[in-house]
Structures are given as structure tokens and as C-alpha cells.
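Lab notebook, bench 4. The sequencing result for the construct came back, and we need a structural model before the next group meeting so we can plan mutations. Quick request posted to the team channel:

Model the 3D structure of this chain.
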Amino acid sequence: MKVTLLGTGASAGVPMIGGADGGGDWGACDPDEPRNRRTRSSIIVQGPDQQRLLVDTSPDMRTQLLDCRIPSADAVLFTHAHADHITGIDDVRVLNRIANRPLPAYATAATLDEIIRRFGYAFKPWDSTHFYRPVLEARTVAPGETVTIAGLAVRLFPQNHGRIETLGLRIGRFGYSTDVIGLDDAAFETLAGVDTWVVGCFLRDGPHWTHADLATVLGWVERLRPRRTVLTHMGTDMDWAWLRANLPSGVEAGYDGMVLTTD
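Done. Here's the predicted structure in C-alpha cell form:
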């Protein structure tokens, strides 16, 4: 199984809009380190049968897929309905054209309700002629379920994201936990024995009310003890070189375009 980190940045990306010369606010991140340039968080998972599951449609999805040379996707799973995870939805129409069919879109009932409220046209029935708009078929899922999506057995678990709940997922021995501040026992049980875990870590020094900081994530790692932990959804104080020099063995900062292989 191959996992591509399409984007590893937080909701504003790195750099954020602004900066003294308008070239971006990098915070503590070195602008000369290309791995500090981060688009909004998303991944794509390719199984042994070459089908691809796209997890979230970030506003940077078009350039992410082009930069990572991803030619298609077979299904979409939404972790939640925040803008940095859904507003690339219009570019699904090109994925529709490539597949020549509507794509199934999996999410909880609450997440689907919010996405359909904002992008109702994407969920209207297809007229079997042209993909001038995205065409998605809503598939409701819930934490605790294992669902087959794009040929992959996806186990879903709940994550605390402050005011809302997000979906975490486990596929084989791979786990993905973006946009999370807290994990309950059910989440840890689902992740037990995971080999490679990609987990959101927004800032170096916390706490934060919706996202985990580095100390929190390292505490989770100590409990789970995965072979490899890769940080994602990182903000502007998460400099790649600093993290490389200071993270414990087995924990590393992800970067846009990073490819992981796992079973």
C-alpha cells in the first residue's frame, strides 16, 4: 500500500498570506527549506489493486495532484467539513471525467449534511452526459465501522477536534489522524499495533483548543509505540530542520509529496 501526503499544512498553509514584503508569513519556518512550504492537509492511499482513495479535497487539491503525479482517484472520504478539507470539491469534476462516472463520497451524516448544504450541486444526480460540475454520491458512515472503499478495508474511529468530531482512519497497519486535540480509548484501541501513523501536530508549544501540540502528540506516541510516526497539519512554528534535530527516534515531520509504503 502506498500513501502520498498531498499536503501537510494547517488551515492557512505555510507560508500564510502576509509578510513584510507580501511574500508570506513564515513564522519560525525557514523559507529556504522547501519542506517548510506546506499546502493544506490531505492524503491519497493506493491499494494493491491500484485503486486510489482521496482523503479530503483541500483548496490546493489541483496543484497537489499535479505535483505528486496522481492521475486519478476512485473514491473520496471526508474527515470533516472544515473549509481547508472540502473547498477543493469543484476539481472533483476532472476526476469524474477521468473515471467517467460519479465518485462515491464517504463521511459521517453530520459532515455530509454540512457539505451538501454548501455544495449541493455536487450531489445532484448525474445526467449521464457531461461532467461540467463535480458529481459525488453520498455514502454515510460512522465511527466504529469498517467500510470497504476503493478496495481498501477502512476502519473509522472518532477524534475530538474541539467543537466538532473528526474521523480518524486505519487501513491495515497504517493510521491517519488529522485535525485532532483528543483521542479516546476507542481510538487508541483501533490504532493499537499500528506500524505507520500520520498524525496532526499544529504547533510546537501549546496547548491549543482544537489541535494537538508536540508534547501531546509525543505522549500519544509513547502510548501507541508505532514504528514510524509522521507529523502533518503543521503551522508556522514547526520548522522542518528544527524538528529533524529535536524529535525522538521514530518520529519525523512530514512534507508535501512524501510517499510512505506500508502494509
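The longest strand covers residues 152-161.
Will bring this to the meeting.
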